[in-house]
Amino acid sequence: MKELHDSTGGTEWKRSDNWLIQEGVDDYDATCTQSWWGVRCDEGVDGLAIVEISLGGNNLIGTIPESFSSMVHLRTLSLGANKLEGLPSPPLSESLRR
User: Fold this and answer.
1) Which pTM does this prediction carry?
2) Percent of the chain with pLDDT over 70
């Protein structure tokens, strides 16, 4: 998620509530944090996993990181009305078709 924030101008997003901190601890590289605005996590076999990213119309400008292709639990990706380019290689696109 750090890559998404950095590659899409996260400091200029309209909403980025709690993306950089959680209870005073730097969670910038956390796997999933329920408090990130626009992100929903569910408990999985290996702990929390990102299942939804809804950041439409949030002034994201840049490139979707390749690391998104490793988000095998992601079921909903809503990034419309932003200025993004690039689409990660499968398995992301395969998991979104399910």
Assistant:
1) 0.78
2) 77
Determine the Cα–Cα distance for residues 28 and 31; give it in Å rounded to an integer: 9
Burial environment of residue 18 by CB neighbours within 10 A (0 to 12, 13 to 18, 19 or more)? middle
- Which CATH number fits the domain that encloses residue 70? 3.80.10.10
The dihedrals phi and psi of 30, each to the nearest 5 degrees, come to -65, 150
Number of structural domains (the chain) is 1
Domain that holds residue 84: 2-97
pLDDT at 8 over 60: yes
> Is residue 40 classed as helix, strand or coil in its secondary structure?
strand
Query: CB-based contacts of 26: which residues, under 8 Å, 6+ apart?
Result: 20
Q: What is the pLDDT of residues 71-80, one digit of tens each?
A: 888 899 999 9
